Amino acid sequence: MNKxxxxxxxxxxxxxxxxxxHSAKSGHPGGSLSAADIYTYLFFEEMNIDPKDPKKxxxxxxxxxxxxxxxxxxxxxxxxxYFPVEDLKTLRHTGSYLQGHPDMKxxxxxxxxxxxxxxxxxxxxxxxxxxxLSGDSYRVYAxxxxxxxxxxxxxxxxxxxxxxxxxxxxVIVDNNNLQIDGxxxxxxxxxxxxxxxxxxxxxVINIDGNDFDxxxxxxxxxxxTKGMPTAIVAKTVKGKGVSFMxxxxxxxxxxxxxEQYAVAMEDLRKAGEA
Length: 274
Hints:
Elements: H1 3-24, H2 29-34, H3 36-46, E1 61-64, H4 70-80, H5 119-134, E2 140-145, H6 152-163, E3 169-175, E4 178-179, E5 182-183, H7 184-188, H8 193-199, E6 203-208, H9 212-224, E7 230-235, H10 258-273
Parallel strand pairs: 1-2, 2-3, 3-7, 6-7
Antiparallel strand pairs: 4-5
Helix pairs in contact: 1-3, 1-4, 1-10, 3-4, 3-9, 5-6
């Protein structure tokens, strides 16, 4: 995909996020929207995957460590062809396979169930070690929140990843600077994020996580990095793409009403035309 195609796809993924959360009347749109560009690049450009064969042995693995932003992952998987886009409207409904956190037993394309913050990266490290031990060529990608990295388990996993020189592992931190209780700097600052990962023997890349040129360059640099895992610290805008949600902490875990939904979809329609 070229940059324009990626931007258009990301916009469609954002529409799916807003539609799903509106239909559910609950969920987490802010951190789903901030990471939409990263989701898009991973699933449409970077990763070796096949929607027709979700469990193929040599596929690259993805773990959504910040599992509450499942609407972003679901919309990406739907737009990539893993299941119908129309199913996004069943988010969190009784009987739907699209529940509030990713479930590897019921959702095609989900490699790890997640939701408890801090645990996803540990699973990703295990997958990466497994690939090294078996001599497989697959790569492992884990998306974390910047509030999530306040969890101690994240750094236990990072220590092991650096020690084992897991150059088949890429950790992405969605650094939108907001968590449920407010700015991360006020709740429990994890800064400087890049220096912390460097201390655990990661190759670190700082980027604008809503800029596809920088995203593209970062993942190519990560792929070329040997002998150590990579951490991409992606500075993003919470609620990206929806005017009244951008940089507003209240949209961490709230659903738009009918009027707000109409405004959000109009914002995204205009963005698509642009």
